[in-house]
Design goal:
Number of helices of chain A: 13
Shape of chain A: globular
Number of strands of chain A: 18
CATH class of the largest domain in chain A: Alpha Beta
Strand content of chain A: 25-35%
Structural class of chain A: alpha/beta
Distance between the termini of chain A: 35 Å
Strand order of the largest sheet of chain A: 3-6-2-1-9-11-12-10
Radius of gyration of chain A: 24 Å
Oligomer: homodimer
CATH topology of the largest domain in chain A: Carbamate kinase
Chain lengths: 418, 418
């Protein structure tokens, strides 16, 4: 007997037939003797329709009303799944965010979960013959005003991990349209293989780099509360899964649980990058603030920042990257701030890509990056900039060379399928 | 300055453009200095979709889950209308049933409102510059379990009247697709005219007889709490209404408020009736129970019941009517119970109609029914059965003569337009 959280996204619950399929997954775990809480998203398309209505109602809509409208999507799915489960003879009931309650901050539209009361659910597992809790994801309630909040896009992952923490679940299964986390994008490197396990920190880096498997915040929450998150496929037929066998997917867990830690776990890349280099900026206190303050004010997400030690003691070059979509706004922002920053000129490039190598093993292994630089040079890939962190390093290269670089590094670190 | 409740049904809020139109109606009253609470239904079609999903999920769905799913429709409308109002510069916020809260009985799917806390709304009228309360109709919460309940179809009318009672509103405006209550159906009698006022009791009779203007329960509630209900058209353009002039529509109110009470207020009719006469049933205690018990068990709504005093002291004839749709089931039910009832034979007719004459004035005026019998006889309309109550009498006639009978009585009692 284990206690499990199962999370299903919008495409998995898009219509009653698919909800029935989800119910069979749930029934499998219940029949295997587990205590189960399910977290569901809105039926796919629903949230978009609700958001569209809010936008049509007003371009500057009240975030509190937006939340009240949008949160209904998950409520519908939770009720319907409870009905289908009951129809299959599985004891179940739905829970809306305010009913548990899922207490959140007041940041409507992007609230953070503060607390979930898991006691009632645990009591019901015991007293009501393992009654399945079907919980509307993505939402909570702000205690002071008693109004509904939503957690922002992808928030159902966060709901699921938070519920798992609240009820002390042995595992939080995220059913998704990929069957796990891969060493890199299999569309670029056919040799990419699925990882059995990945450490929270590594997954955080991957998620931050745009791997769409999990929302960054949900991984953070999992790390803080040590919730074992299991990414698995929602396409597997419930009948084909042996509930007593080890399921296939990727476990996101504490590094201590990963016995044979690789030095490098995965390669991530992003082609939608633009680079802005500020030449001969004066090397004095406050300059970084003068540059990045206005960018933050314009809501531009700066990614890599590279500043080298000044050679002449008075000026230096500073390079940063932004998403391509923000490039124009970023350039104009920096040009407008020229007087307050003080620099000679801007060199920019919009056809650049960032390739990142991630692995907790880097902490204890020297020379991991050096190997990469050598291999890239051998393939005539020019490195424009480098940043490093404790468990990751990234290189900025010409976008056309992305695939070659990723394949080179994937093979270099022994990640290719055997 | 007055305090008003305004209620809008599903077709009035079917899309954002129509919600914007509703908002203009609301703004008109706010601008006129009134304190306003709005009660809204789900966008038309939404409830049907939600109900269809529940049915697809299971033919025997849990009423608690059904309520959780279906209640979302009104929540969406309430949020959207609040957004549109704010966009027009009107201070507004939405309220879901559990937020006010609207406390109801536990009868999921058909709950009764037990209590609404109006104090918070009144406080907000005062403290927040007449903040408009936009309330999701049709729903409440059962306190003990903290689960959502719905009031059954048409329940938004009941929500509106209950809110009006809770906040002590001077009037509860029901915006609907008719512009008031008529003396009879204008499609049958072109001379039918709109009533300025109608007493609760009269409206209750009309509603019970199938006038679709208002839900019976909402009129009952209005009568108990003395809420003045005003039926008016949702098609009038907000711009065309002078907020300081007397609005056009029909006021449902206490009879004391109707200065010039007519003897007869309206004529109602129903063509979908079937008649079952039980011949030579033994005239002894318990027979009525033997007949109507099985019908009630089969969920058949019996309408008119006519039993005359026995002529021979041992047997009598008993006639009752049921909706045409239930005729076959009713006949079979009575045939099956023949042994326990004890009767000679059944005479039935499926082509009958009931015509009813309603008026509080009948209480104090003798001979009102006698006039009708004379007029009907003069027009060669045969009366199959008669029932009477304090403020109403009904005659059962052949269905083909319905229109003639209604026109005859409408003119007889001076209801024709002048």
């Amino acid at each position: 007997m284990a206690r499990l959280v199962m999370k299903f996204g919008g495409t998995s619950v898009a219509d009653i037939d698919r909800i029935r399929n989800v119910a069979r997954h749930v029934k499998r775990e219940v029949d295997a003797g587990h205590e189960v809480a399910v977290v569901v998203s809105a039926m796919s398309g629903t949230t978009n329709q609700l958001v569209a209505w809010c936008r049509e109602a007003s371009r500057l809509h009240d975030a509190r009303e937006y939340d009240a409208v949008v949160a209904t999507g998950e409520q519908v799915t939770a009720g319907l799944l409870a009905i289908v489960l009951q129809d299959m003879g599985v004891n179940a009931r739905s829970w809306q965010g305010w009913q548990l309650p899922v207490l959140t901050s007041s940041a409507h539209g992007g609230a953070r979960i503060l607390d979930i009361n898991g006691a009632e659910l645990i009591k019901r597992f015991k007293e009501r013959d393992r009654e399945v809790a079907v919980i509307a994801g993505f939402q909570g309630v702000y205690k002071e005003t008693n109004r509904l909040t939503t957690l922002g896009r992808g928030g159902s992952d966060t709901s699921a991990v938070a519920v798992a923490a609240a009820i002390g679940a042995q595992r939080c299964d995220i059913y998704t349209d990929v069957d796990g986390v891969y060493t890199t994008d299999p569309r670029v490197v056919p040799q990419a293989r699925r990882l059995d396990k990945i450490a929270y920190e590594e997954m955080l880096e991957l998620a931050s780099l745009g791997a769409k498997v999990m929302q960054v915040r949900s991984v953070e929450l999992g790390m803080v509360h040590n919730v074992r998150i299991f990414v698995r496929s929602s396409f597997e037929k419930p009948e084909d899964i042996d509930p007593h066998a080890e399921p296939s997917g990727t476990l996101i867990c504490d590094e201590g649980e990963i016995v044979e830690q690789q030095v490098v776990t995965g390669i991530a890349f992003s082609k939608d990058e633009a680079q802005i280099s500020i030449r001969r900026v004066s090397d004095k206190p406050g300059v970084a603030a003068a540059i990045f303050g206005p960018l933050a004010d314009s809501n531009i997400n700066v990614d890599m920042i590279v500043q080298n030690v000044s050679a002449d003691g008075s000026t230096t070059d500073l390079t940063f990257t932004v998403p391509s979509a923000d490039y124009e706004r970023a350039r104009i922002t920096i040009e407008k701030a020229k007087a307050s920053i003080g620099y000679e000129r801007l060199d920019t490039a919009t056809d650049v890509a960032k390739v990142s190598v991630i692995g907790i093993g880097m902490r204890s292994h020297a020379g991991v990056a050096a190997q990469a630089f050598g291999a890239l040079a051998k393939n005539k890939i020019n490195i424009r900039a480098i940043t490093t962190s404790e468990i990751k390093f990234s290189v900025l290269i010409d976008a056309v060379q992305t695939d070659l670089a990723v394949r080179t590094l994937h093979s270099l670190y022994g990640l290719d399928k055997t």
